[in-house]
């Protein structure tokens, strides 16, 4: 066999090591801080959108404290939550406009 046709050795996969409780707690704190910053600025964070300037340091800390797969998962959760909130707000607005009576409970008939 030549060097070109010899198969390269395959590295053994890295074993999964769960995060310690203190590391998980630190991850959750950084996650909550980042998403809270986005909410306070009125920005719905979406990975396709740019991170608000005031929250960029928190996003970096979030990436440092959490595994990349967790960050991806938390971002997906935020997107799902934002869709649910928009759907519910639209449904509530639609029901309120077609409901009989007013908010005081008296009929307008």
Structural class: mainly alpha
- The ordered H/E elements are HHH
Strand content: under 5%
Count the beta strands.
0
Q: Enumerate how many helices there are, as a single number.
A: 3
* Portion of residues within helices: 55-70%
Largest β sheet strand count, sense and barrel closure? none
Q: Taking all residues together, what is the mean pLDDT?
A: 82
* Rg over alpha carbons: 24 Å
Low-confidence stretches: none
Distance between the termini: 93 Å
Per the principal axes of the C-alpha atoms, what is the gross shape? elongated
Summarize the entry for a quick read:
With 109 residues, the protein is mainly α.
Please describe what this structure looks like.
The protein has 109 residues and is an all-alpha fold. Helix content is 56%, strand content 0%. The chain has helices spanning 21-40, 56-65, 68-98. It starts with 20 loop residues before the first helix and ends in an 11-residue tail after the last helix.
Write the layout of secondary structure elements.
Blueprint: H1 21-40, H2 56-65, H3 68-98
Helix pairs in contact: 1-2
Please describe the structure with a list of short key phrases separated by commas or semicolons:
109 residues, mainly alpha, 3 helices
